[in-house]
Specification:
Elements (H helix, E strand, L loop, with lengths): L36 E3 L11 E10 L2 E7 L7 E3 L10 H6 L7 H15 L8
Length: 125
Amino acid sequence: MAQATKKPALDNPHRRFRPWLWIKPSTAARMGTTGLTVRITHPFHPLKGQAFDMISRSPHWGDDRVIYRAADGTLPTIAAAMTDMEQPDAFRRVAAGRAAFRTADLLDLLTLLDRVSAPGEAEDA
């Protein structure tokens, strides 16, 4: 009488291998950021200059965001570039507040305005 052999779990077609169970999601917070203070530095933000307790820093929809505890206890997010968590780019360091716009941003704006105001491309409403 032949003895029946039991199939290993990995060879069983009814069991699926699910590697995503072990992959860390991209929205998981970075470790070691709790307990820090974050200051909003963007010149046009209404909370500029105010410091808050930082809860975490993580990517949200492709943008590096900081989650902080507001005075009312809520947990709003803000782009890390608008806080002191990010070093200012080279242009802002050299301009030292003397220039309101970067040259690259003005050129992008000019291209956009040319595209919008080009005759024949806008449809009549």
